[in-house]
Amino acid sequence: MMFNFYPWGLSVNIVKPINRHQTRVSFISYIYDESKIASGAGAALDKVEREDEFVVEGVHQGIQSSAYKTGRFSPKMEKGVHHFHQLLARYVNES
Q1: Is 29 helix (H, G, I), strand (E, B) or coil?
Q2: Tens digits of residue pLDDT in 32-63
């Protein structure tokens, strides 16, 4: 699940595995302030989500490459994401 916060509200991307090589992504938007919906990155939400999808597909193809030799997270760029996932996993496992 991915949460994208915008001036007008929240967009939730739900990623569901179909099989080892395929996923299905659903987008749900929660609008808090309709007067701000035309401003910021969330103004063209469908376009932004499709661009994100294109990037994720490219990364997945790269991970399948024989030249790929690292883990799921970028050590330089994704420390915060990795930390959040560790906290989330700890919370889920304690429940």
Answers
A1: strand
A2: 888 888 776 667 788 877 887 888 788 778 87
Q: Note every long-range contact of 80-85, with CB atoms under 8 Å and residues 24 or more positions apart, other chains counting.
A: none
How many CB atoms within 10 Å of residue 33? 11
| Cβ-proximal residues to 42 (8 Å cutoff; 6+ apart), any chain | 4, 6, 7, 8, 9, 11, 48
As beta bridge partners, residue 63 has: none
By CB neighbour count within 10 A (0-12 exposed, 13-18 middle, 19+ buried), where does 6 fall? buried
Burial class, 8, CB count within 10 angstroms (exposed 0-12 / middle 13-18 / buried 19+): buried
Predicted structure pTM score: 0.56
Q: Where exactly are the structural domains of the chain? A: 2-94
User: How many Å apart are CA 93 and CA 7, to the nearest integer?
Assistant: 33
